[in-house]
Amino acid sequence: MKADRLWGEIQNNALDKGIDLVGVADLEAARPYLDKQGQEVVASFPRAISLGLGLTHGLIDRLGSRDPAVLASYFNLYTTVNQTLDRVALLVAKKLESEGYKTFPVPASQSLLPDKLHGLISHKLVAHLAGLGWIGKSCLLVTRRFGPRVRFATILTNAPLPANSALAESECGKCRACVDICPAAAFTGRPFKPEEDREMRFDARACKEYTDSYQRELGYQFPSSSTVCGLCVYICPKGRRKE
Ligand code: SF4
Ligand code: SF4
Fold it and tell me: Is the pTM of this model over 0.85?
């Protein structure tokens, strides 16, 4: 099957399964940055499909309440959204493999090693390269439709799918709401530059340490070590429900 037609089918099937955003990233263009993460498996794939699924506003709008019941529900929402993404990523990978291509579905929530607070490949960078949004001052992928209230999964592939173009500019403008609200002061507020390490903009360890102390203060253990306070997701004006 021709690549254009195959991509059309994959897109329609993913949207039918409830996925909100789909795009193709050209990984060759980002090779110097991806190589910094040093993952051999990523280096062997020229393309990546990004799948995005929006979160529900009713819950994210309440994250500012600091209510443990809301935080537990937030974790549950993440788990459900991640599982949905992973299920559709599996179907996409199987479709590509049935056409003779290689694939590697990267789980929606994944961390490689305890001392490396990131996974096999940055889903946010892939989504950015696939034209789905920009990387905000919060280091989250911010989309026009959902702001940062969205999760992503990635399927690495060697299928010659037509790649999208990355958005040229951040649309954060003068906003610094995420920088100002972060209780861990984890963001420097520097705009995203692909050639700079994430550490120039975000202190992942500060976020994790704040999360640990916050749990002690609340007397409540988050259901997973990947749960964080989420204030940077909550506050972003780009994610607020459009009336
Ligand atoms: S999750 Fe909370 S502590 Fe972590 S970066 Fe976002 S606002 Fe800061
Ligand atoms: S809160 Fe403002 S600065 Fe932060 S990501 Fe959203 S738009 Fe950008």
Answer: yes
- Closest ligand to C-alpha of residue 206 is 1
How crowded is residue 38: how many other Cβ atoms within 10 Å of its Cβ? 9
Domain 3-239 top-level CATH class:
alpha beta
What's the Cα-to-Cα distance from 6 to each of 89, 99, 161, 162, 178, rounded to whole Å? 15, 9, 8, 10, 39
- Identify the residue whose tokens are 């991509």: 7
Q: Does ligand 1 have an atom closer than 6 angstroms to the CB of 231?
A: yes
Q: Residue 126: helix, strand or coil by DSSP?
A: helix
Tally the residues of the chain.
Answer: 243
Q: pLDDT digit string (tens) for 162-207?
A: 999 988 789 999 999 999 999 999 999 999 988 888 889 999 999 9
Q: How far apart are CA 104 and CA 107, in angstroms?
A: 10
Residue 229 DSSP SS3 = coil
pLDDT at residue 207 in the model: 93
Cβ of 140 below 6 Å from ligand 1: no
Among protein residues, the one whose CA lies closest to atom 5 of ligand 1: 207
Give the mutation target among 75, 207, 233 for probing the ligand 1 site: most ligand atoms within 8 A of CB. 207
